[in-house]
């Protein structure tokens, strides 16, 4: 394994394509220093990073930093030689060496970025001084290498390959030699205007910054290039004229030109606001034409009415990326990709993440993805209609702006608003230096612009000044309104017939179309976004030929537009949202309900023909709501929440490998879920009030009761949760509803697992086993056997527990032979076999079993459970005294927990993190972990977790410094904590742990 060290640009350390993460900035700075200088005395390093500390404190901090550094880097890379610390001579690749071989390689500009770009340690003046001197040295080498490469490309006759490199070089400093090379490259690639502009810019910068004029060689070169092109001095003709279907906005376009021209040393955001119809999207489209050639442009847009589905705009963005970029070819960690795939259906999942992530974690993963994309080409993201972004999408945007490193181009459109959180996010990012922000407020055309626009579009009409006054007065210069009026005038209407409102304009335009065309427009208007061609054809009931003819007629009339997505699928949409709104508002409420209902039933059929799609289900619910199909809305809302409880709460959901990989759902916290449950409860009340009870409504009510109770059990609201689930179970048995009975029994089993009540768990798991057998659900029988094994495990009947767990594994192997693999279910049973071995004192066997769980899930790309498996393995290593295995598994578990935010099912991890931090003297970090552990074990009451938490508290209290944070927080004596742990271990018959705690009680001293 070779460690790749990247210090050109932001520091990055990676091993076999996986980025290494340093726990602290000083540790990262220490690593960078050692790989540049190769060795240093301990005194030098202490002065470099802890010059404000006394000798003993600085020495201790250096020891801790080296310890953390060695945990991150491959073994043996950082060594001690007496009083010197040395970075190894082999086993790593440092990108600084590229500066010496750059001209003979095939680089990109990003590979020669400034030394340790963006990195600093302001609290360490000696380090900052070293950084300043090193940057100056490497900047000279970097610029020399880039000039040499430019020269080499020109000599080889490939000037186009030198452009990005020379443009970056010329933009970053007054460099006459680079300017000359760039002029020649532009000339050879036929970009005469850019060549002339470069000469003028070079002349201006030499005069203003150095008080010099260009050298005779530069002047001669410029003259030669002009003559070679057969031109003159370019006076007045050097800039390409504007043209092609776009009018005005020249001042605004010129103001953003500098933002769109390379080089990009930072992210640049162009924020375009204005009222509906002012031309924001068209302006952005025009501005994108100024972006560097080869720019990857992807869109992240929202629509009114779609706010109920969280993160929808980002799903569309990823759909565009996935269709155009081979994500498998990127150095994008599988865990990050699966994290995104768990929340976004647009990403075809090849793996499942640990847990659906929240918007802020998703924003960090999204930023990482775009940082990788920007290494290959310039990237521009268009955020359309920011005013319609839901709260989660804005949270993700905030995180994306905070974590992004690559210099992206961001275009934003939004309507004017006094309060705009999206605008505040960009302004905040600009204030702290995360991006450069350019705000453009587009106003309607002025009186003069209105006249010019009309003359341009109506060259054959003889209009007087009063006519233009009238047009301006009627339209207020709004481009969308004005364009509609002009189309009517161009069709032969008189000025006296000019409409007085935008709505009237569209009515006049639509009057030219047939009732059949209007029929299509009405159906299209119930789509909140563009309509996929196949679905529109089914919804309209038209043949392919007839639909094509009507769409073409409406497209020619500027009412509709076609769009091919990145996957070459055809979509139809209105030319402007105002057109769609006008058509939709013109429908009667009865007509709207009818159309929404028809579309909802079509989408229901589509969902029934494919694997579950959370986004599609959300749209069904939305159309049912607009169609007043309350029972169907209730039905699909319950279905959606059932999947969410599997993905958001259950560690080992009963889903096959393929379904688990393909399932997607946003992380919904308790507050969001409570709001949804409250909404469904009100919907149920309304249905009961308004109609006669039906068998279907009674079934849905019982299903809702079980679902609501299940959520409350997961949240620890045991009294209300048990009552609701028990009532649902009673109703299911009365009505002989086997499906509902199985759902209720699973909820009760999970409750018994959380509270570790073996008798209750055994009773419910036996009922589940019997009911699943009657229904011939073999996979569910395998789960019931695992639950039965866990019940015996909690009781201390280890032989019986292991027999049931082995039977569970055998059951799922049989299912796999005939159906689909359930890897996570066999790993779950093996996990509890390891738990049994651990409790019985067979520690080596337990460690091997947990290792097998880790390997099994990693091989299949199933990251769920990995955090728990690593935590359990660290627990065994903790008992064995194997510090190397302990730290390896603990770090893996910590990393997975941070990636997935899956904290609720793993109290062991926080206990062990607290112990590790305490022995390293990091009391604040230890106290945070202890408090998180307390919150879990006290809420869930799991005895094995609670015993470990008390054991760790006893160990920490025995060795903590007096008067410190931990000493004050841990108010009991070490003996009190140990007695509590000992009592629990004896009750669970975990004899080896009881013995260890007893022996520890006689020990004294620190860590």
Q: What's the SSE blueprint?
A:
Elements: E1 3-6, E2 12-15, E3 18-19, H1 25-37, E4 39-41, H2 42-50, H3 55-72, E5 78-81, E6 84-87, E7 92-94, H4 98-101, H5 125-156, H6 159-172, H7 176-188, H8 192-210, H9 216-228, H10 250-260, E8 267-273, H11 280-288, E9 296-301, H12 312-324, H13 334-341, H14 359-373, E10 379-384, H15 391-403, E11 409-414, H16 421-431, E12 435-441, H17 447-457, H18 465-475, H19 479-490, H20 502-510, H21 515-525, E13 531-532, H22 533-540, H23 544-556, E14 560-564, E15 570-574, H24 577-586, H25 589-608, H26 614-626, H27 630-648, H28 657-662, H29 670-690, H30 695-714, H31 718-735, H32 738-755, H33 758-774, H34 778-795, H35 798-818, H36 823-839, H37 843-860, H38 866-880, H39 883-900, H40 907-919, H41 923-940, H42 943-959, H43 965-969, H44 974-987, H45 991-1000
Parallel strand pairs: 1-7, 8-11, 8-12, 9-10, 10-11
Antiparallel strand pairs: 1-2, 2-3, 4-6, 5-6, 13-15, 14-15
């Amino acid at each position: 394994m070779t460690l790749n060290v990247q210090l050109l640009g932001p520091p990055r350390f990676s091993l076999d394509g996986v980025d290494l993460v340093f726990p602290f900035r000083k540790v990262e700075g220490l690593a960078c220093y050692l790989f540049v200088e190769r060795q240093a005395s301990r005194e030098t390093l202490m002065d470099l990073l802890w010059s404000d500390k006394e000798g003993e404190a600085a020495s201790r901090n250096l020891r801790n930093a080296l310890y953390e550094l060695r945990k991150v880097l491959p073994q043996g890379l950082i060594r001690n030689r007496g009083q010197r610390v040395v970075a190894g001579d082999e086993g790593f690749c440092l990108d600084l060496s590229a500066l010496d071989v750059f001209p003979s390689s095939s680089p990109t500009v990003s590979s020669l970025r400034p030394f340790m770009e963006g990195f600093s340690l302001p609290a360490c003046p000696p380090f900052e001084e070293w950084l300043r001197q090193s940057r100056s040295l490497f900047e000279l080498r970097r610029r020399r290498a880039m000039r040499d490469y430019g020269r080499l490309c020109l000599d080889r006759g490939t000037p186009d390959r030198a452009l990005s490199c020379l443009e970056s070089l010329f933009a970053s400093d007054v460099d006459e030699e680079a300017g000359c090379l760039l002029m020649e490259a532009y000339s050879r690639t036929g970009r005469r205007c850019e060549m002339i502009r470069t000469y003028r810019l070079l002349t201006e910068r030499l005069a203003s910054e150095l008080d010099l004029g260009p050298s005779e060689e530069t002047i001669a070169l410029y003259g030669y290039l002009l003559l070679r092109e057969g031109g003159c001095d370019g006076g007045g003709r050097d800039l390409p004229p504007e043209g092609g279907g776009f009018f005005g906005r020249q001042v605004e376009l010129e103001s953003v030109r500098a933002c769109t021209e390379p080089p990009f040393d930072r992210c640049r955001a162009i924020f375009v606001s204005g009222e509906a119809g002012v031309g924001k999207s068209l302006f952005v489209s025009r501005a994108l034409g100024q972006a560097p050639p080869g720019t990857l442009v992807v869109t992240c847009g929202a629509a009114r009415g779609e706010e109920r589905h969280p993160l929808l705009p980002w799903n569309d963005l990823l759909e565009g990326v996935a269709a155009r970029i081979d994500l498998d070819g990127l150095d994008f960690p599988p865990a990050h990709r699966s994290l995104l795939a768990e929340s976004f259906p647009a990403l075809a999942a090849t793996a499942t993440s640990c847990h659906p992530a929240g918007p802020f974690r998703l924003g960090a993963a999204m930023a990482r993805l775009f940082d990788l994309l920007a290494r290959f080409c310039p990237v521009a993201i268009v955020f359309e209609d920011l005013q319609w972004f839901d709260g989660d999408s804005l949270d993700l945007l905030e995180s994306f702006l905070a974590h992004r490193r690559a210099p992206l181009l961001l275009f934003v459109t939004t309507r004017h608003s006094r309060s705009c959180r999206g605008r505040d996010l960009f302004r905040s990012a600009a204030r702290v230096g995360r991006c450069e922000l350019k705000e453009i407020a587009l106003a309607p055309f002025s009186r003069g612009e209105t006249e010019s626009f009309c003359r341009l579009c109506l060259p054959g009409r003889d209009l007087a000044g009063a006519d233009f006054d009238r047009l301006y007065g009627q339209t207020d210069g709004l481009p969308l309104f004005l364009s509609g009026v002009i189309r009517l005038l161009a069709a032969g209407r008189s000025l006296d017939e000019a409409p007085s409102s935008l709505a009237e304009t569209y009515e006049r335009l639509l009057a030219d179309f047939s009732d059949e065309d209007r029929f299509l427009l009405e159906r299209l208007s119930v789509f909140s976004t563009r309509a996929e061609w196949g679905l529109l054809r089914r919804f309209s009931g038209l043949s392919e030929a007839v639909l094509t003819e009507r769409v073409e007629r409406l497209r020619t009339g500027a009412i509709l537009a076609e769009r091919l997505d990145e996957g070459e699928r055809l979509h139809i949409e209105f030319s402007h949202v105002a057109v769609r709104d006008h058509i939709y508002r013109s429908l009667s409420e009865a007509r709207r309900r009818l159309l929404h209902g028809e579309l909802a039933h079509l989408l229901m059929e589509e969902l029934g023909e494919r694997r579950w799609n959370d986004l599609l289900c959300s749209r069904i619910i939305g159309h049912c709501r607009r169609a007043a199909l309350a029972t169907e809305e209730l039905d699909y809302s319950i279905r959606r929440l059932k999947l969410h409880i599997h993905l958001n709460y259950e560690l080992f959901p009963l889903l096959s490998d393929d379904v688990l990989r393909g399932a997607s759902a946003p992380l919904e916290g308790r507050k969001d879920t409570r709001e949804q449950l409250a909404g469904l409860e009100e919907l149920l009340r309304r249905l009961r009030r308004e109609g006669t009870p039906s068998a279907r409504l009674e079934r849905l009510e019982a299903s809702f009761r079980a679902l609501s109770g299940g959520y409350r059990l997961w949240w620890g609201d045991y009294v209300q949760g048990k009552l609701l689930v028990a009532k649902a179970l009673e109703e299911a048995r009365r009505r002989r509803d086997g499906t509902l009975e199985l759902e209720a029994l699973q909820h009760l089993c999970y409750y018994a697992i959380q509270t570790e009540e073996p008798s209750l768990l055994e009773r419910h798991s036996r009922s589940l086993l019997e009911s699943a057998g009657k229904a011939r659900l073999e996979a569910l029988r395998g789960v019931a056997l695992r639950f039965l094994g866990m019940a015996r495990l909690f009781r201390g009947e280890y032989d019986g527990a292991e027999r049931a767990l082995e039977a569970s594994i055998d059951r799922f192997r049989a299912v796999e032979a005939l159906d689909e693999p359930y890897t996570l279910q066999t790993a779950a049973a093996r996990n509890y076999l390891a738990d049994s071995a651990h409790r019985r004192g067979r520690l080596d066997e337990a460690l091997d079993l947990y290792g097998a769980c880790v390997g099994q899930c990693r091989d299949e790309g199933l990251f769920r459970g990995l955090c728990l498996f690593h935590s359990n393995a660290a627990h065994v290593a903790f008992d064995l005294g194997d510090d190397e295995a302990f730290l390896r598994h603990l770090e893996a578990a910590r990393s997975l927990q941070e990636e997935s935010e899956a904290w609720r099912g793993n109290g062991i991890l926080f206990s062990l993190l607290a112990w590790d931090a305490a022995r390293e003297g990091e009391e604040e970090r230890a106290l945070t972990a202890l408090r998180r552990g307390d919150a879990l074990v006290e809420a869930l009451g799991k005895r094995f977790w609670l015993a470990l938490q008390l054991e760790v508290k006893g160990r920490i209290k025995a060795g903590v410094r007096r008067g410190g944070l931990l000493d004050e927080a841990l108010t009991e004596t070490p003996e009190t904590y140990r007695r509590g742990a000992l009592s629990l271990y004896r009750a669970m018959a975990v004899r080896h742990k009881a013995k260890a705690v007893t022996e520890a009680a006689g020990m004294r001293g620190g860590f």
